[in-house]
Each structure stands twice: as C-alpha cells, then as structure tokens.
Amino acid sequence: MEHHAVLLMRTELERLRKEHRFMREKAEEQKYIITKLLSESKRNNKEEVSKWHKQKKTEEVIKMLRTKLKDAANKENDIREKLEKREKRLDKSMKNEESRQREIERMNKRLQDLKEQRDLAENESRQLSTSKDRMQAELDRRETETTSLMAKVRKLERTNAELQLQLLDEKKQSPTDKHNLQDGMVTQSEQVENIECQLTALRKELEVVEMRHQTCQDKLAILEKDHGTLIEEHSKVIRKLEIYIYIYNLYI
C-alpha cells in the first residue's frame, strides 16, 4: 500500500511540474505582451491625441494583464510550495520504503534462523525420544531380570534352609541311625554347599543387575529431563516464529 502511495505521489509531482512549466511560459508571454503594449502606448501618445480611447483600452488591457501576471506569479509560488512539500513527502516515503525493505530482509533472515532452530529442536527431540524408548526397554528388561534372579535366590534360600534343618535332624539320630544315614548326610552336605555357592553367585549377579538397573534409571531420568528442557525450548522457538510471521505479514 505504501508503494502505491509513492507511485501516486510521483504522478502528482509530474503533473505539478508540467503545470509549473506552463505557468512560467504563460507569465513570460504576458510579460512580452505587456512590454509590447507599453511600447505601442508610448508611441501612440506621441503620434496623436485622437487615439486616446485606444490608449485607454490599452491601459485597461495592461492593467488586466498585470493582474493576471500577479495571479500567475502567486499561483506559481503556490505550485512551487506544493512541489517542495510533495518532494519532501516523496523523499520521506522512499526512505520509509527502503527502511521497510531492510526490515523485511532482516525479518526474513530471522525467520530462516528460527525455522532452522525449530528443525534442529525437532530432530533432537526425535533422537531423544528414540533414546528414551530404547532406555525404557532396557530398564524393563533389567527389572524383569532382577525379578527373576530374586525369585531364584528366594527359592535357593528356602531349599538351603530345608537342607540345613534336615542335617540338624539327622545329627540328632542314634549312632546306628547315623551310621545308616551317613551316605545321605554327605550327599545333603554337598547339596548345601552347592546351593550356597549358587546363592553367592546369584547374589553377586543380582548386585550387578541392580547396579545396571540403577544406572539405567539414572540415564532415563537424565534423558527425561533433557527431553523436557528441549520441548520447552522448542515451544519458545515456535512462539517466536509465530510472532515473526505475524509481524512479517504486516510489512508485506
């Protein structure tokens, strides 16, 4: 719309310039006529008195032409003032247009930067979401593994406790019974030792799994925090982008 106004002002300036030139030519023509009439009037006065009426008429014409010349000069001044004002307005409009174009270029660059930031944030968000899903799956697997190991430990502990009770009961038997059950006690002792070894190994494995489980939880917590921060930054970029698009549409 500003560009259209500038074009209209240029057209109006050109029209005023043409009118100014025309008034100047008209004024010069009237000056010439006045000079000619004055010369003729002086010559006629010297020639004969009978031409007084003609001289009177000539003077009236001269007076009228002088009035027109004065009016033309006034109009020329008015046109000159209008031209100066219009030229100032045109210069100001052109400067405003240049400033607007620079602002549009600056906003275009800013919009491009914001779009790149948005795309980068969206890409990082997708990568974090993928990492988060992968870490959650690993965490679930570790939890399942921990639960399974704990169940095995509890089962072995119960079996070990039962075997310990059996050994105590066998020690309380009579010498004859002890002799008869000696082979069974040796077997049970071996089973107890074997179970205790398995328990020790399982407890160590359980500790390792629990440590890995805790590590997974820590990593997942960090990922969730980073993801939340990234989502917040992405929202800010989107809001800035919407504001700049709105302002940009006002300029174009």
Features:
mainly alpha; single chain; 4 helices; 96% helix; 252 residues
Short description:
With 252 residues, the chain is mainly α. The protein has one domain (14-168, 207-251).
Summarize the structure in words:
There is one protein chain. With 252 residues, this protein is mainly alpha-helical. The protein has one domain (14-168, 207-251). Helices cover 96% and strands 0% of the residues. The protein contains four helices and no strands. The protein has helices at residues 2-47, 52-171, 175-180, 182-251. The longest helix is centred in the middle third of the chain and has 120 residues, at 52-171. It is rod-shaped, with a radius of gyration of 54 Å.
The Rg value, from CA coordinates, equals 54 Å
Helical element count? 4
Number of DSSP strands?
0
Distance linking N and C termini = 9 Å
How large is the share of residues in beta strands?
Answer: under 5%
How many domains, as an integer?
A: 1
For the report, how would you describe the main beta sheet?
none
Oligomer description: single chain
Overall geometric form: rod-shaped
Write down the overall mean pLDDT: 68
The helix-and-strand class reads mainly alpha
Q: Bin the helical content.
A: over 70%
Helix and strand element order: HHHH
Q: Give start-end ranges of low-pLDDT stretches.
A: 176-186
Biased composition (Basic and acidic residues): 71-145
Protein name: Myosin_tail_1 domain-containing protein
Region (Disordered): 71-153
Organism: Heterorhabditis bacteriophora
